[in-house]
Amino acid sequence: MDYSPTAKSILQKVGGEANIVSVNHCMTRLRLVLKDESIVKDEEIKAIKGVVGVMRKGGQYQIVIGNEVAKCYQEFLKLGSFGDTKGAAPAKKGGNPISIILDAISGSMSPVIPAIIGAGMIQVLNIILGWFLPADNQTLQLLSVIGNTAFYFLPVLVAYSAGRKFGANPVLVTAVVAILIHPNFISLTGAEGGINFLGIPVTSFDYSSSIIPAILTAWVMSYIERLIEKITPAFTKNFLKPMLIILISTPIAFLILGPLGSIIGNGLASVLVFIQSHVSIASYIIMAAAMPFIVMTGMHWAFIPVVFAALETPAGESLMLPAMLISNVAQGAACLAIAFKAKNGDLKQLAASSAVSALFAGVTEPGLYGVTMPLKRPLAALCISSGITGLIAGIMQVSASSFASPSLLALPIFVRADDPSNFMMAVACAAISIVLTFVVTWVMGFKEEERN
Description:
Elements: H1 4-13, E1 20-25, E2 29-34, H2 42-46, E3 53-57, E4 60-64, H3 69-77, H4 97-109, H5 113-130, H6 138-152, H7 154-166, H8 170-179, H9 183-190, E5 196-197, E6 200-201, H10 212-231, H11 240-278, H12 280-297, H13 304-311, H14 320-341, H15 345-361, H16 365-375, H17 377-396, H18 421-444
Antiparallel strand pairs: 1-2, 2-4, 3-4, 5-6
Helix pairs in contact: 1-3, 4-7, 5-6, 7-8, 7-10, 8-10, 8-11, 10-11, 11-13, 12-14, 12-17, 14-15, 14-16, 14-17, 14-18, 15-16, 17-18
């Protein structure tokens, strides 16, 4: 599809270049920071060819394009000069503290998602190849390193994106957070007897693959940077300002924020384990059924810290990833049923492409915003079938051992050495979700005119 007309129409409908502060994109959404959102009419944006939905969230006007959002983004950039295209949304003032925290996490994680999904799929490939190749195969070993690197250095990736989110210098934030996983820092803090900084003991933690310490550090550094900016003379800013920022921020990071973030992460994992142990079946049902609505808010990525904390435990992650698998393939199955049953050619094409995206890539926004949500009944059908399948997954206690965007291609993330049956149970849940959703969607039907 040629996204040049789409980009031009979007620019016109959002008030032109003069109303745009910055433009960015994630996996499926064009994210605009506007000076005045009130002049934009959502229905007019939704009517543009190539747009499947809109969302106002976190100071951004988010336009859902789908898998080809990068093409639309490139066409959009040709239409004007939008300043720092990676700029963060302005900080929200007031509001629900929980929503603000979730938005901060989600905003920090969104730019990193492509890297961890790509690395996750390489890990999936590595698992599959491991079924046929010996463990000492050198190609397999190198693929393991490739697939693990983005996760090991996840604090560094998150530090950069969180720096942008909070308005701090992302390179300086990255430099500070990278110290937490520096080999020499690890060896010093892990040595017998430990190590002190200015007489204060430095607590030893494993910060690889951690997320919350990086986000906390970026947030605090945004204030430190503003303070240093005020107190440093103009002629010293080139060298004194970055030095002071690093010198002040780093001890705060490894003495306070790093340990605090690790404690929070471990606490979240403990809470998740408690929930799964005491109300596991109910939590599976609720999470699987509610997943489309969580995706609507963009908050599914805000749960990533909890997911990674749980993946570090022997039991693996047994809530979010199984629920996302069930819901993702259900979204694909609902779109597939619509593609077969619909009479409108454009709807058939959109539903078919959205089904492939959801089933095999775990990307559900095109189907959610462009197909099932406008048609209403298919959305209800997939929520019902997802809840039923969630009940089955809860009874089977399905859990994931590694991370990837849950889909049919990513099913190997449910391979567990200590429980060979876990993979087959995940396959069974995916199959049940697909068949059940297809049937329920077909039986409940839909009115094509409701999408207009």
